[in-house]
Specification:
This protein has 99 residues and is mainly alpha-helical. The chain has six helices and no strands. 12% of the residues are buried.
Length: 99
C-alpha cells in the first residue's frame, strides 16, 4: 500500500529517495518531485536525478521524459554551439567588412 507523501520542495536528496522507496508505484511521487523540487531547489533535483539514475535505472528510464535531465543537457550543449557559431559568423562579417 502506498503512503501519502507531502512535498514542500525543501527536502534533501535522501528524503526524496526515501519517498520513492516507500511507494509501490512511485510515479505520483516522481511527478510531485519534478513539479516542486525542480523549481524550488534545482541543485537538489539534479542530484536526485543522478542518484535515481544510479540506484534505480529502471525507474529513471521509465520516467526520463518527466525528469528530463538528458534533454536539458543536450539543449544546453546545442544552445552553446549555436551561440558560438553566431559569434564566429559575426566576427567573420566584421573582419571581411574592414578589408
Amino acid at each position: 500500500m502506498s503512503k501519502t507523501e507531502f512535498i514542500r520542495g525543501t527536502e534533501s536528496v535522501e528524503d526524496l529517495m526515501d519517498m520513492i522507496n516507500r511507494q509501490d508505484d512511485p510515479s505520483g511521487v516522481i511527478g510531485l518531485i519534478c513539479m516542486t523540487t525542480r523549481m524550488t531547489n534545482p541543485a537538489t533535483f539534479n542530484q536526485f536525478a543522478k542518484r535515481l539514475k544510479k540506484e534505480k535505472p529502471e525507474l529513471y528510464n521509465k520516467f526520463s521524459d518527466l525528469i528530463g535531465e538528458e534533454k536539458n543537457n543536450t539543449n544546453t550543449n546545442d544552445n552553446s554551439k549555436n551561440i558560438i557559431i553566431v559569434l564566429i559568423v559575426i566576427a567573420l562579417i566584421i573582419l571581411l567588412s574592414s578589408l
